[in-house]
């Protein structure tokens, strides 16, 4: 899908998308490490299939970076929901996502908000949000 | 996990991790959905080219058979100004008065926003005046940005009136202070192709030095037959449609082929090739080129067939163009850029080339140009910059494949020749992004499944090659090769496999399952499959035969046309099957077939699985 030049290489910027669509769920930091393994000594901007394949096979065989189950995700939201009221305000979500952990870019934040925020209450009802996203995947 | 600050950081990382994975998978699905649409579109264009001589024959032959006017009369008619068509008092649409003024363009815009139609008499007058004006223009127009601040350049519109209106809303109407260039493909696919042409031609007549048009590959009557414009005109204009379509062919042939701005920026619809010769293009007589798909150079064997009591021969109709002229024009209207160096024939589309950055660089250097602006390909963001900034693709039909599939864009070029892009998207609904994406993907996969179904027999034969023991299963790799060998769509089959077919627990493919969810009323399975595959072509032929647009053709005509079609495509359906089919379609036994009912019989009904 990503080999636009049909020469068994892909743009390095698409590696994250590729790895994730193979079912792995690494963090940005873990992704960075994987990338370091497959890049050329002199970075060309492209990743070759022959370098990528062994690394990826190993990752898949070892079942590393498994996707996050729904209940774990739910608990993560609950941790952020200090008042335990079943929802986060838009501002709270933005604060956590853009200031903590591996911060979102503005674009990522806007995209998440567009689907996550309930326009009537202007809050993130995270239980509903998770359910909707999971259904969409399947 | 648990309490306090550390807990919330970990929670945040988890959510971010999950979200990025989710978005990546969505991105992957978006990419392949788009590539499915694109490859099917281009494969159909290729099929179109193969049938072009057959359709032309049908057109010419039917004009001869069913009407008393010969070729000579046709020419005479086109010369006359159509004053003879009466406009009834009951007509409340816009009434144009020539020469056109801004009042006319305003009333047209107003009327079309209200979904009114322009009366045939004014359409014909408009086309007539447009042709007169275009005839005075050279093949390649030279423009200068010195007077105005910026010129706005738009790409493919494909009959999408909402996009044109949105552009005018955002960017202002064309005028002396606000010049525009429209880079081809105004028609086909969308529902308002004729309205777009009317608006563009009207503005052209009012502001001939500030509204510019380049010809696209869809400004061609054979393309219009397949991609919907002919049908639109026939539906909206009934008995006048033939006159309009004939005059339109002339107008198409007089459209300029290219534009150059400030002697630095070349604008063509498709692209270039390594043999593109701008001096040559500027000099030859462009209106000889009545139909671009008419490959006069390819003279295949003559086909003889019995047709309604006469023996007719199907020649490859000779074009008046030389081989060189034909290639030069097809190259600029059909070519696509590619990332690797070199220039190879564009096999996917069936015409033009794939040109690499080296070809671009050489051409720009040779003619002392700075960049090439072209359209022709749908781009997710409405535009794309390639060949190190030397090639810009601009595409102005948003939601081209499907509601939400892509944005449209236009570009503004100032006297420094630095482009500025403006993007937009017409949207009829406010579905959330994720649900939107799901719909687009579903739609692409549905098209793909229909394609699979239409080649069922060949596919099953290919699968059986890998499964001599009839276990019903083959490996994923074998499945992918078999499908590609039949369909030639160059899609990522392995990635798509889980969406198209059932998988056994060990990962192997149950290859018959991709035909399961589609139900078609069976008449005779092999015949059904063939009819299904060619239903677009049949519809085109039907529309050609159905002169009075009544929706009915005689059984005899249907039978004979089908036989002709058969022999041209070398399909193996025996006469008896055709006769049985014809009889079964004529439900009321009056000797005529309602083609719409006939097509309904082959409408694919999806199973509930999706």
From TrEMBL, chain A:
Under the heading Gene3D superfamilies, the entry gives: EF-hand
Q: Which domain of life is it from?
A: Eukaryota
Per UniProt, residues of the EF-hand domain are 68-103
Which PANTHER family does the UniProt entry name for this protein? Answer: DYNEIN REGULATORY COMPLEX PROTEIN 8
Q: Could you tell me which Pfam families the record lists for this protein?
A: EF-hand_7 (PF13499)
Q: Which GO terms describe its cellular component?
A: sperm principal piece
Give an example GO molecular function.
Answer: calcium ion binding
Alphabetically sorted, this entry's keywords are: Repeat
Q: Which InterPro entries match?
A: EF-hand-dom_pair (IPR011992), EF_hand_dom (IPR002048)
Q: Please give the name of this protein.
A: EF-hand calcium binding domain 2
From TrEMBL, chain B:
Is Repeat one of the keywords? yes
Which Pfam families does the record associate with it? EF-hand_7, IQ, Metallophos, PPP5
Which species is this record about? Terrapene triunguis
UniProt keywords, alphabetically = Calcium, Hydrolase, Magnesium, Manganese, Metal-binding, Protein phosphatase, Repeat
Database matches in PANTHER family: SERINE/THREONINE-PROTEIN PHOSPHATASE 5-RELATED, SERINE_THREONINE-PROTEIN PHOSPHATASE WITH EF-HANDS 1
Entry annotated with the keyword Magnesium: yes
According to its UniProt record, the EC number is 3.1.3.16
User: What name appears for this protein in its UniProt entry?
Assistant: Serine/threonine-protein phosphatase
What's its top-level EC category?
hydrolase
Enumerate the spans annotated as EF-hand domain: 454-489, 533-568, 573-608
Similarity-based family: Belongs to the PPP phosphatase family.
The GO annotation for biological process reads: detection of stimulus involved in sensory perception
Cite the GO molecular-function annotations of the record: calcium ion binding; iron ion binding; manganese ion binding; protein serine/threonine phosphatase activity
């Amino acid at each position: 899908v990503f080999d636009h030049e049909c020469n068994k290489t892909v743009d390095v910027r698409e590696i994250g998308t590729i790895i994730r669509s193979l079912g792995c769920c690494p963090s940005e930091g873990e992704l960075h490490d994987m990338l370091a393994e497959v890049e050329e000594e002199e970075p060309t901007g492209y990743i070759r299939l022959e370098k990528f394949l062994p690394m990826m096979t190993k990752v898949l065989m070892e079942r590393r970076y498994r996707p996050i189950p729904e209940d774990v995700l739910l608990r993560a939201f609950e941790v952020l929901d200090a008042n335990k009221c079943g929802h986060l305000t838009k501002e709270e979500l933005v604060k956590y996502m853009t200031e903590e952990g591996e911060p979102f870019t503005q674009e990522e934040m806007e995209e998440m908000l567009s689907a996550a925020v309930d326009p009537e209450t202007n809050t993130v009802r995270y239980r509903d949000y998770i359910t909707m996203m999971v259904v969409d995947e399947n | 996990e648990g309490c306090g600050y550390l807990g919330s950081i970990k929670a945040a990382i988890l959510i971010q991790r999950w979200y990025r994975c989710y978005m990546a998978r969505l991105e992957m699905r978006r990419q392949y959905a788009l590539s499915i649409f694109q490859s099917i579109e281009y494969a159909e264009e290729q099929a179109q080219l193969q049938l072009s001589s057959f359709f032309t024959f049908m057109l010419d032959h039917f004009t001869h058979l069913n009407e008393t006017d010969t070729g000579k009369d046709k020419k005479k008619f086109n010369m006359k100004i159509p004053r003879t068509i009466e406009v009834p008092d009951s007509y409340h649409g816009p009434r144009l008065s020539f020469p056109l003024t801004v009042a006319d363009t305003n009333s047209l815009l107003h009327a079309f926003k209200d979904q009114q139609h322009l009366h045939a008499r004014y359409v014909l007058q408009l086309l007539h005046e447009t042709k007169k004006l275009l005839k005075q223009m050279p093949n390649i127009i030279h423009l200068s940005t010195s007077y105005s601040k910026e010129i706005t350049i738009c790409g493919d519109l494909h009959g999408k009136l909402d996009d044109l209106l949105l552009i005018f809303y955002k960017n202002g109407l064309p005028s002396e202070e606000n010049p525009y260039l429209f880079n081809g493909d105004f028609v086909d696919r969308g529902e308002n192709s004729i309205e777009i042409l009317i608006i563009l031609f009207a503005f052209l007549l009012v502001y001939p030095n500030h509204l510019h048009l380049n010809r696209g590959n869809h400004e061609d009557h054979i393309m219009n037959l397949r991609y919907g414009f002919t049908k639109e005109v026939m539906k909206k204009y009934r008995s006048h449609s033939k006159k309009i379509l004939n005059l339109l062919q002339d107008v198409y042939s007089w459209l300029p082929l290219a534009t150059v701005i400030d002697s630095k920026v070349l604008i063509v619809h498709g692209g270039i090739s390594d043999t593109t010769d701008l001096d040559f293009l500027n000099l030859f007589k462009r209106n000889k080129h009545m139909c671009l798909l008419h490959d006069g150079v390819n003279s295949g064997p003559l086909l003889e067939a019995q047709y309604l009591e006469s023996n007719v021969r199907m020649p490859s109709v000779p074009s008046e163009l030389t081989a060189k002229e034909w290639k030069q024009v097809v190259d600029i209207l059909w070519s696509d850029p590619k990332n690797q160096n070199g220039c190879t024939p564009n096999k996917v589309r069936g015409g033009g080339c794939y040109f690499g950055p080296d070809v671009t660089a050489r051409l720009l250097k040779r003619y002392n140009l700075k960049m090439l602006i072209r359209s022709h390909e749908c781009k997710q963001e409405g535009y794309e910059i390639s060949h190190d900034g030397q090639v810009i693709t601009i595409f102005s039909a948003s939601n081209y494949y499907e509601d939400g599939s892509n944005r449209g864009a236009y570009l503004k070029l100032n006297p420094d020749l630095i482009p500025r892009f403006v993007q937009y998207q017409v949207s009829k609904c406010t579905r959330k992004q994720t649900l939107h994406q799901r719909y687009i993907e579903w739609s692409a996969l549905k098209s793909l499944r229909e394609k699979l179904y239409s080649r069922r027999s060949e596919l099953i034969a290919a699968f059986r090659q890998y499964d001599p023991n009839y276990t019903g299963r083959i490996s994923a790799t074998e499945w992918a090769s078999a499908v590609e060998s039949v369909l030639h769509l160059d899609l990522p089959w392995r990635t798509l496999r889980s969406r198209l077919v059932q998988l056994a627990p060990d990962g192997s493919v149950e290859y018959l399952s991709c035909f399961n969810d589609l139900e078609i009323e069976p008449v005779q399975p092999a015949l059904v499959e063939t009819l299904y595959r060619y239903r677009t072509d049949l519809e085109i032929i039907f529309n050609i035969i159905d002169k009075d647009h009544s929706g009915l053709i005689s059984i005899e005509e249907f039978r004979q046309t089908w036989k002709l079609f058969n022999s041209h495509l070398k399909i193996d359906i025996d006469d008896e099957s055709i006769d049985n089919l014809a009889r079964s379609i004529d439900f009321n036994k009056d000797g005529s077939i309602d083609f719409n009912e006939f097509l309904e019989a082959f409408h694919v009904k999806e199973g509930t699985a999706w």
